[in-house]
Amino acid sequence: MARLINAVDRTGKGFAMLSVFCSPTRYVQGRDATASLGSEIEKLGLGKKACLVASRSALKLLTDTWKATLTAHNISYALTEFGGECSRAEIDRIKSIATENKSELVIGAGGGKVLDTARAVASELDVPVVNCPTAASSDSPCSALSVVYTESGEFSTYLFYKKNPELVVVDTSVIAQAPVRLLIAGMGDALATMFEAQTVINAGKKNQLGGATSLSALALAEVCYKTLINDSIEAIDAVSNRAVTPALERIVEANTLLSGLGFESGGLAVAHSVHNGLTVLSETHNYYHGEKVAFGLLVQLVMEGKGLDLISPILEYCSDVGLPITLGEIGINDLNRESLRRVAERTVMEGETAHNEPFEVTSPMVFDAIITADALGRRYKESEIVEAIAKVAL
Questions:
Q1: Are 87 and 138 part of one and the same domain?
Q2: What is the pLDDT of residue 77?
Q3: Residue 355 a catalytic site member
Q4: Could you identify which of 88, 130, 180, 367 might form a hypothetical disulfide with 167, taking C-beta atoms 3.0 to 4.6 angstroms apart as the criterion?
């Protein structure tokens, strides 16, 4: 009985809230998985007329494969290149194309912003959506939400949907050809998953679905973290050589499926809100979502009062794989305090997940945590340099 009680207490919810867990209807991953796209759509009965929105790189790599697999299963499609930003204007543009084509489903192929746009269009037209990520750069492909930005790249809002994608097809042969920085950015997004879920549980707050976090969601988040620690370096080497290996398959699953289910059914906290706050500074716009989330995680751990016994391994991991641990590494070289106050204020806006902490979060607290996280990161990098010099001297 004691073991059962501990399990319930671990969720931090007792019986106050219903647990809510969600996932895509079907998830397919592996080498040359795109070749199965037509048959998977047919198996699920998703429709015979598609609107396919794709990034430029996806068009170069997959146009012939789409023609073969979709034509073989009598699926016609209108193909359009993604405009570059998941904005209201781009959602409306793709929606017009899908409407004109009388599309029965929407297929998104590319990075996170392409897939966010595809989900938004499908939701507004009330048709199925198929997500085909060409990089394991974020945990968005499996989710029932989109992150919408302004045309200039500043965070605007989240859009939440009534269901997750009907189908997610992850072709690791394609992902192995993407820039390695994209894979590493996905690691940064996934790195925060377990810590944010634990915070939401400890605070007794709601996950992204408006319910309590289930044990399954936390377990997936924990497996995600362990996989990152065990397989990241080998996966980076694989993509650097455009190779598909078991380690890469595991990291792609961690970045895409485990983190996707873990963040949505687990919940978000300060790390992702800091990302949103950082977008108010134009100098951060050239950095990926997961890179800013990784720094946001350091800010969260500092704010939560975690000790170096927990923060140091995160600093080491980020340094080893190439994730940012200082403001300078996300483009903020001038530590303008007024600019950082703007970041802090945006981080704690009403509705932000920063308020899922077990204590009240204010902009001065965020500001102080940002400054301190940056100082810890710089100290760690300086110690690495000193250690490297000492080794050379020996």
A1: yes
A2: 97
A3: no
A4: 130
Which tokens go with 176? Answer: 């192995």
Q: Which residues pair with 78 in a beta bridge?
A: 51
The whole domain housing 222 covers 180-266
Q: Is the predicted pLDDT of residue 4 greater than 50, yes or no? A: no
Q: What pLDDT, on a 0 to 100 scale, did the predictor assign at position 334?
A: 86
Same domain? For 37 and 135 the reply is: yes
Q: Which of 154, 175, 196 is the last residue of a domain?
A: 175
Arithmetic mean of pLDDT, 81-101: 96
**Helix spans in 73-203 (H):** 88-100, 112-125, 172-175, 180-203
Residue 290 inside a domain? The answer is yes
* Separation in Å, CA 247 to CA 188, 239, 385: 17, 10, 29
**Number of C-beta neighbours around residue 390 at 10 A:** 9
User: 139, 171, 289, 374: which one is catalytic?
Assistant: 289
Single out the catalytic residue among 139, 231, 272, 374: 272
Residue 320 appears among annotated catalytic residues? no
Residue 392's pLDDT band, with cuts at 50, 70 and 90, is low
Whole-angstrom Cα distance, residue 284 to residue 271? 15
If one compares 133 and 9, the residue with the highest pLDDT of the two is 133
| CATH number of 213's domain | 1.20.1090.10
pTM summary value: 0.90
- The residue annotated as part of the active site, out of 116, 139, 275, 374, is 275
CA 51 – CA 356 distance, rounded (Å): 37
> Active-site residue among 116, 139, 171, 189?
189
Distances (CA, A) of 88 to 16, 139, 158, 172, 359: 37, 21, 12, 30, 34
**CA angle, 178 then 180 then 186, to 5°:** 95
Q: Quick check: is 275 catalytic?
A: yes
Verify whether residue 272 is a known catalytic residue: yes
